[in-house]
Amino acid sequence: MTNIQKGNKRNISRRTALQLMGGCALASFLPLPAMATESLLGSSGETFYPDQEGKITVHPGDTGKALINPGMGWVFHYNSGRTGNYGYHLEPSDSLDWYPGCSVVYMRIPWAYVEPEEGSYHWNILDTPAQRFISQGKKLAIRINCCEHWIPWATPKWLMEKGAKGVWFVKGKGPDPDGKLWEPDYLDPVYLDKLESLIKALAEHYDGNPDVAFIDIGTFGLWGEGHTLFSSKLSPEVTEEAVRRQIDLYTTYFKTTLLCISDDVIGPQAPGSSFTLTDYARSKGVTLRDDSILVQKAPNSWFHAQLAGMYWPAMPVIVEHEHYGLSRACGAWSGQGLADAVEAYHCSYLSIHWWPQEFYEENREFIEKINLRLGYRIQLREINYPAKVEIGQHFNVKWTWANSGVAPLYQGGFPALTLKDKKGGIVSLMVDSRFNLRELETGSSNLVPEKNRISNFHVGFLNPKEFFNDFTLKMEQRPGSEFYAAPVIPATKPGVYDLFVSVGREDGTPVIALPLKNDDGQHRYKIGKLKVEKPSVPGTELGNSWI
Hints:
Blueprint: H1 14-20, E1 25-26, E2 40-41, E3 47-48, E4 55-59, E5 73-80, E6 82-86, E7 102-110, H2 111-114, H3 124-134, E8 139-145, H4 157-161, E9 166-170, E10 174-175, E11 181-184, H5 189-206, E12 212-216, H6 236-253, E13 259-262, H7 276-283, E14 286-293, H8 305-308, E15 318-321, H9 324-329, H10 335-345, E16 349-352, H11 356-371, E17 378-386, E18 388-390, E19 394-403, E20 414-420, E21 426-431, E22 450-458, E23 461-462, H12 470-475, E24 488-489, E25 495-504, E26 525-533
Parallel strand pairs: 5-7, 5-16, 7-8, 8-12, 12-13, 13-14, 14-15, 15-16, 18-26
Antiparallel strand pairs: 1-4, 2-3, 4-17, 5-6, 9-10, 9-11, 17-19, 19-22, 20-21, 20-25, 23-24, 25-26
Helix pairs in contact: 10-11
């Protein structure tokens, strides 16, 4: 790559300049005879040109790539009620890294498989397949259900044998003494006692686990979807009481991990935004999942986007689509409809509810489109910073941020700049802890609100003489002293350093993946260079040498 040295006056095309800058568009890049500040040559050959005020402006571009981030992403149904759908045939090493944006593996499984004998919990049927996903930075989500259409004892048979009441039914017809499927009485005291033991054990195993994305309140209704329309056909009053009991049980034992509840608890097609049951769940910190969209053809592809509007400003919304093959077979499937649902629900999590390879191959165009909007997508649109600063000198950084996703950055995140030396060592970390990117507003794909911010930073802290008096100054100079007070804290040497941007915790630890190039592997992204010079007035140094 050609290096353009200071004072070279030959013309540079825009294409050449962009190549030299590694894909970053600089507001001012042409060398001028009257330029007051020298250019900064990057370690890989890129050249950064300050303007006449000695500032460098960079407009990083969005890479367009799918991001794996906390609190968002595609959710793969490894188990979907049945134990063989849809992860059973994957190789034990396949964690769907090839599926762009897949961040969660979802285990939906009947209670009987988890607790085949009372008090004996088989968590390994969930944890074993989950580990390969977790090892690749993905999360686990779980639903344990009590009623299925393919197995009579989704609720363990031993519970009925201990006296729990229930209903035999025929799917679609309802209660029938000759039915072959069994659903528990959700208000039966024996059932509630054993259910509480299960939820307590589930929480002891998973609550607060950073590798768990969410837990469904899924122990009510057929498939755990919160309705009994095709099974015991409970009245709205009984449903309300039973679901409230379960909300109370889950929220009693799960204090940290996100809980969610199906929209069908208020009826699959009930219009509106406020219902006593979902309002109660939301008041307890329980978020919403839609089970499911694209079951019917448009205009009845979904019914609860308005309800989701009560949730998404504060909590991530989860959307599950119908089994892809079934939706396709009945003519209800639409890739564009799925993308439209992401917008309508402002959803953070979206299901992969089919054999993943087939689903991906047949919907790739819309998956790529959805990945640009699903959840949050934090963009650094512009940054303006001085080309050089003195050690200890306060300086301003002007930057413009945006969230081009449909949902807020719920957990929050703070922008940071990091200086690294040629060996990749961190020389300086600067965090704007007063600017929480949770504040970024969402918008449409064509109109994304931006937020401008001026942050004040400094590289290194000069040890001030005012910290000392005559006593300490003399004491530290005693013969044989083993004490040393450094002039700059932390150790900072003059030089030209690589400048990285990141978003994460207040302590500067990067957490959020950004759609930028030049990732250092820890979600810090190189955007330029910064020259650090000796301070005009040095800090106070005590002691003659390092001991």
